[in-house]
Amino acid sequence: MSRSVLLAAARSERLKDVTERVALTRRLVARYVAGASESDVIRVAGDLVGDGFTVSIDRLGEHTRDLGQAMRVADTYVSVLDELHRAELSARVEVSVKLSAIGQAFHGDGDRVALDHARRICHAARNAGTTVTVDMEDHTTTDSTLNILRELRLDFPETGAVLQAYLRRTEGDCRDLAHAGSRVRLCKGAYDEPPSVAFMRKADVDRSYVRCAKILLSGPGYPMLATHDPRLVEITGALASKYHRLQGSYEYQMLYGVRPEEQRRLVRAGEEVRVYVPYGEDWYGYLVRRLAERPANLSLFLRSVASKR
Ligand SMILES: Cc1cc2nc3c(=O)[nH]c(=O)nc-3n(C[C@H](O)[C@H](O)[C@H](O)COP(=O)(O)OP(=O)(O)OC[C@H]3O[C@@H](n4cnc5c(N)ncnc54)[C@H](O)[C@@H]3O)c2cc1C
User: Fold this and answer.
1) d(CA 154, ligand 1 centre) in Å
2) N or C: which end of the chain has fewer CB within 10 A?
């Protein structure tokens, strides 16, 4: 099954219904998702901080088409930030936000709705003593997301950006964002994109990642290198030395449940490692994107779904 078929499955309501009823998938979900509730994610974040990690919390859910729902997602973030502050975790734990979950997908004034909610979340993060990173979604939203980020950074310059190495435009975006005080997460990119805008071959995506990492690591900003790819982790380390980056002037980022031993190895080596921890009920699209990256997980998933049909 190709990656693009699998990513199409991430948007299928029928498959979602079947999947949610399968017990075995719950085990897979538990590997990648902290739990359904706020208390679950605070507990997991606390454990990770205790083990020397920093954390970015993601409240699962995207493509909100309902104003009330967008408001509730923003409320949830504000509540999590308050709770992090109370639990004295906010110095080590931030949040990641998908603009499509807070209204960007509305026709007409989606950008304004998302910006208003994002401002509210940034405000709560500032009060709690932490930061927000704005996740990047599919390429049709890149310009809108970067515009909203620019607006947010006028009041909250600490807000993190995300750039995706698979997009042909990203080297240019890295140059624009590689300035002092600018926190930029570089990832490969998780969506099914057309060849007109994205590199299709893994080797080309990896080469783009290295070019972008060079721009970010040689500049004065704060690069956040988000990858599990062993070769890219190694190259990042070599580039950090080449550009005389001290440990802590950049960070590695990895997803909760993905290569946990490698995460611990990097912490033991003195590196800053941030674990991206999703939580919430709406895990389906997230899970299928993770499966698309890891064919070994896919057969387990398909067997579990097939045995229930
Ligand atoms: C902290 C963080 C934040 C991210 N934010 C965004 C975002 O905002 N927007 C976006 O489009 N994408 C985001 N991503 C996802 C990213 O774009 C990639 O889809 C994902 O990280 C897989 O790419 P990779 O660099 O790990 O390399 P890959 O080439 O996919 O993987 C390299 C190796 O890592 C291991 N691995 C990778 N994925 C898995 C898995 N699911 N299970 C087990 N092992 C695995 C395997 O050994 C694999 O061979 C984020 C990723 C991280 C780590």
Assistant:
1) 30
2) C
